[in-house]
Amino acid sequence: MKQSASACLIFTALLLLVSASGCALLSGQRSPKLPTAAGGMVELVPGEDDTAAFAAAVAALPPAGGTLRLGAGTLKLESAVVPPQVELHVLAGAMIHVGKQLQIDGALQAGPYQIFDGPGQVTGQVKVREVLPQWFGAKGDGRSDDTRPLQQAANLAQHSEGRTLRISQGRYLFCSNLHIRCNVECLGALVQQLEVDQAKSRVENFFYVPSHKVRKSFRVIIDNDQPQIALQAAPFLGLEAGDFQLPTFSQVPLADGSGQIDLQEGGTFRLTSTDFFTSRNNQYGDQWYDKTETSMLVSGRGDFYPELMYSYLPPPEASEWNAETLYKKGDYCRCEGKLHKATWPSGPGATFSHKYRGEVALGSSRPTPGTTSYEFTFADGTPERVRTWREVNLTVHYQPPQAPLTINGLVIEVQVDNPQDEVLRLDNGQALLVSRSNVTLNKLKVFCNNPKATLSALVKNAACCNVTYNDAYISGATYHGLGYNIHNGAASLLAFNNCVSVNCRDGIAGLCNKDVTIEGGFYNRIDDHYGMNYTIRNVKMHAMSTTIPGYRTPKADLNAWRFEPTTALVFAGGNLFIENCQIYNPSGILSSRGDIGDFFGEIVMQNLTVHADRQVTLLDMSASQNFDYAHAVRVPDKVVLENIRKTGTDGFRFNSDLDKRPESPKFEVMMRNVEPIASITCGSPMVFDSCLFQDAKFQLGEAQFRFCTFDGSTSGLEKFVSPQSTANRNSPF
User: Fold this and answer.
1) DSSP conformation letters of 271-305
2) How far apart are CA 595 and CA 622, in angstroms?
3) Could you tell me which of 619, 563, 572, 568 has the C-alpha nearest to residue 598?
4) Range of the domain at 292
């Protein structure tokens, strides 16, 4: 600082004069005037660095504390501290230029105007209820890049007394990832501007549908306070599906060998095993689903909830890899000390078939670290590859307890730069990512208004527990293709209350989620590739989804997309309860995912009304009879369909072929008060109670009929009753 010794002495003396009142007024205006104590004001003499003067002003206040008021002008601070007993008032027109760091542990008063600039950071446990992004220079005009002001304000709010970021009216453009670790009160909107990289456009992806690369992908992230911690896997081996207590929860060794930690109540842990549980029947057939899930520790004794969906057992015994051995999907081998699992047949006689390009002999594929890719060429010269081996390992990540957050009124508007007005299938991430446990989002709104733009997802919940959405509105992930409004991945204890999720392929989709409740609201299709313990209650659904003609073929035409009626609920996994729902214009109500096969636990649908002028599939439980899922396909313990009505023309169809697979046992199906029914195909035992059949066709193994009504013609019941008795509308059998 360039300041004369005499000026410093005068400045200090004047501060002592005003300190008795507990208030000093610092003016950053550069003026040749000498300091004066008139009116309790201290004017700083010209200088390049006001750090020392600021510290002297703080020190001059009474020990019990006082107030510093900053008037118009710029105060230059390299590094400074506002202690807890000091209140800082920053008046309009004042600016604090921070070179390195300003730590504010006391109170702060300022209006919705900029008070901080410079390259440094404003930190501390500031005693304010709300932090404003305007303090850091946010414009809110929808054109200026407000990312840094928003992030600085969020960082300060994280450790503030009120832990709240207040986003006032306006449109705030953000151009890189925005990490939120505080409460939010939002009255304006965050704007995500996506720009298509034309140099990387129209790249054919795995599904033969052209996609467009985004120049920069970013999102709003509701993030953890600290990074997750990697733990050694050995203490967790031996856990079985259904377990709810960890064998080891204290002195758990860290993955890097640097020490041990105790797992705390309220923390979460995520298990991910590359010992995949199923091969997916989709396109190539070498897709797999890893075992992965997240649970919350609910006691200091190692109790956790929800219970495990998968088993995580010690590695099996396996022989050394041999090029002359034929390995099937799911077989194990060891190679160079590592355990591997076959995701595709390998060895003499192994082949690969393509729907359009024919069959190719593969032969042996030597396992490599990670995932093994085997490259080959079709007869027409087209190069291709198939994944053949997966290195088996278990990873365990622990997240210490996170303080609850509440996000109120957050709005994210997705804008897509599309000057040529073309159909765009954007290869990008989400607009909002929730990766933190214990979050409540009230009146969230995320939308894309460009009808020719597709995002892979708008909102994602990943590896977190106890996340609740109340009255959210999510719209426009896609008007064509595969976009999901809400996508959940390895999350648990999710609740969606009175939300709206429309203009998309799936209103809610996901993989490996547990204990999900959807209560009230309005949705397009709801889908989970593999989940456990779902409750869907008091929901209205308009079962329209998007399709692309020629999808999965070289003839796919992105410009020919359209909305079509679809199955309202698509599910793989177990324990599904659906109650008191209204479903409009579906092709089906519920279908198992035939690409995965599993449908276990109890499946219950009751008190539903379906509106459609077409035959509607009530329930379709299907699994390919030829595909090798690499595990025994699971079937439900019980299926209950009760009090289900259909309006409009035609009736319900029911189909199950799960029991046709040789490894699948039979299961019981109960239908009570369902009408009208037009078609039933099932080899497992069925009980019909008080059902109405209209021109019904049956393909049944075992069946009981109680107080049912038959209208029109009936076929397929000859082994249960004579054709004459079925003509009786009130035949009780």
Assistant:
1) EEEEEEEEEE-STTS-EEEEEEEEEEE-STTSBEE
2) 9
3) 572
4) 229-305
- 619-637: pLDDT as tens digits: 999 888 888 999 999 999 9
Q: Which helix (H) or strand (E) holds 171?
A: strand 171-174
Per-residue model confidence as pLDDT tens digits over 686-717: 999 999 999 999 999 889 999 999 999 999 98
Asked whether residue 394 is domain-assigned, the answer is no
Residue 404's closest CA among 493, 466, 446, 339? 466
- Count structural domains, the chain: 4
Q: What pLDDT score does 204 carry?
A: 62
Instruction: Give how far Cα 509 sits from Cα of 333, 482, 520, Å.
Output: 35, 11, 17
Q: How many residues make up the chain in this entry?
A: 733
Residue 62 tokens read as 């009474």
Verify that 301 and 354 share a domain, yes or no: no
Task: Answer with the one of 67, 101, 120 that is the final residue of a domain.
Answer: 120
> Given its phi and psi angles, is residue 711 left (phi above 0), alpha (psi -120 to 50 degrees) or beta?
beta
pLDDT digits (tens, 9 = 90+) for 356-373: 788 999 999 999 999 999
Which residue in the block uniquely carries the two structure tokens 């992105």? 558
Question: For the residues of 308-330, what is the DSSP string, one character each?
Answer: PSS-BPPPPP-PBP-TTSPBPTT
Same domain, 654 and 729: yes
Both tokens of 535, joined, read 């409750």
Same domain, 573 and 691: yes
What lies within 8 Å, CB to CB, of 200 at 6+ separation is 212, 213
Q: pTM for this one? A: 0.92
52 with 17, same domain: the answer is yes
Hey, what's the torsion of the CAs at 270, 273, 274, 279, to 10 degrees?
-100
